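User: My advisor, Dr. K., asked me to get a structural model of this assembly before our group meeting. I'm new to this, so sorry if the format is off. These are the inputs:
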Amino acid sequence: MNKRRTGSRSTGRTTIEDVARHAGVSAITVSRALRTPDSVSKPLRERIGQAVATLGYVPNRAARTLASARSNSVAVLVPSLSNQVFVDVLAGIRDVLGPRGYQLLIGNNLYDAAEEERLLMAYLEHHPDGLLLTGLQQSPRARAALAGSGVPTVHMMDLMADHSVTSVGFSQPAAGYAMTRHLLERGHRRIAFMAAQLDERTLKRRDGYRQALDEAGHGDYCAEISSPAASSVGLGVELTAQLLAEHPAIDAVFCCNDDLALGALFHCQRRGIPVPQHLAIAGFNDLGFGACSVPALTTVATPRYHIGVRAAELLLARIDNPALDAETLDLGFELQTRESA
Amino acid sequence: MNKRRTGSRSTGRTTIEDVARHAGVSAITVSRALRTPDSVSKPLRERIGQAVATLGYVPNRAARTLASARSNSVAVLVPSLSNQVFVDVLAGIRDVLGPRGYQLLIGNNLYDAAEEERLLMAYLEHHPDGLLLTGLQQSPRARAALAGSGVPTVHMMDLMADHSVTSVGFSQPAAGYAMTRHLLERGHRRIAFMAAQLDERTLKRRDGYRQALDEAGHGDYCAEISSPAASSVGLGVELTAQLLAEHPAIDAVFCCNDDLALGALFHCQRRGIPVPQHLAIAGFNDLGFGACSVPALTTVATPRYHIGVRAAELLLARIDNPALDAETLDLGFELQTRESA
DNA sequence: GCTGATTATGGTAGCGCTAGCATCTGTTTG
DNA sequence: CAAACAGATGCTAGCGCTACCATAATCAGC
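Assistant: The format is fine. Below is the predicted structure of the whole assembly, which you can bring to the meeting.
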């Protein structure tokens, strides 16, 4: 009678079948009691709840995913978690997707194309319900796998030129342009550009920087410095030292993010270079500390959290209705003019 | 003959069966070619490889997990990703577990006990092969589920008093004590303590601080300030202002992390308070920017990356051999005495 | 009291993959 | 030359869950 079938392959863990037996119902009723409690009568629901608690039952997600063909997960690929920018984006995503019951598969370490491909393939094995990516996929294989998978996808941070994909972000070149214009308007003429890793977005900001200089007739003056290293305050110090040694005449530096800018600021403090009088410093992203540094940092405020929120929302819409047209959502940016420039 | 059975529940995605048919072999051979290539002859291996490429086959991880009872994933729960400390820990974990083929399920937002429980339960549904946790689980239900799951677990950051669990980290109270001793030895007497959220680890550092003051006979003098808000440079500015307003006589402040310390530094710069002459400032963690700030930040260097690495290694050992005894691994810390104190 | 709709529960058959064994071929050994 | 063995491949039966359909029980309406 008590057909406690335990095959050789059984894992020994409590299954839905065990709970069903304990509660004197069928497995499918337990399944329903857990997923759609309203479809099960109250007495059964309670009995099942007790059985679950007594046995310490934890549903097996792999089995659920396999049977239902829905993973209830969304994969998010960001370049790096040491960059606060992406942590803020993630927070926005989590705040939208968490309450909707989605689990996030967070992948990082994407400044390397091979690693990016590896990660994307790995996450596709989970058959996520949706995909949130940062920037275009670099490797053709990754792009093919992406297209072939049919998983709804939203790209974040940048606005895609390709209007067949959905993207949420702001115009990187426009932001670079705006900051450079600001520096020009404040009377600076020898404006340097500083970056860490030259990813897509950084390159676009640089395009904006160059365009602004060109238009102002200073296109011939061009002091650009970058490093393959990851961005950090320390790197900002180093690059500033190097920049000033090579181009002593510069009167402003547009740093591609706030970490570098803070490093530039520290370097100037250490050397007694007055900011912004002798050297104006501009950052990018408005990471929070810029508002309290001395002098306070002029920077570009980017809608990171909001990008995460809107990207998640657009993705949800596309999961519910895969036929939706692609969309490009520009969330803009805002110049924060403070003391350093 | 071509029994292309496509039941009503089929997802339409390419399965291992499709690949097998295309390559003219059985499904199990494809499975082997993908997992243990050496066990399949070269010609077949190549034919299968081509079929995989042609069809764009992506294995279904849920099915694999279900059939093999191994998820090849490790769940990592950290309090927050906006705290660089945990990002460094994650990097160490990834560097060990990634090459070994494990996927990481990263959970954050754990400063809330209810959320922590929710996340832990959600990750247990994945039946991870191992679990890396930060701090003790607060809720009894979470602890029960953890114990019942039988999943190998390593706790990170702090050293557990409970020697039945494996933990990797350093002594938080000892670190708090050491820094306070340093400040005392430099002649400071009115030493304040500043923290953001009072999590377990922060409280233990404070214990060390109090003990050092007590021993030095300054136990009666106690200026402590904290805030329920998340730690940030801005919060450091605020708390410093508040602290100085309430306790104008303090001559040193021990900040529970470097963000707060930088905020304190900025506040002093803004108000023209000489550091360290009028107010010495000490941080915690040695996040990188402390080495270049002006003045450079005295702080406690914590082996974050290394904690991640060793925790992952201990976990691997326990996954391979669940019978291993619990272990407590103290990785120590190092006082970084620089200019600010 | 009968019909048709509605609600609550259960049985069956997979989802896509792999463990465990069986089978088949070719090679080695006494 | 038979027996023993190793290596390569295949068959079958699940892993634990849920979609789909069937059935039983209840109820409104005529």
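One thing worth pointing out at the meeting: Chain A has twelve helices and twelve strands.

User: Perfect, thanks a lot.
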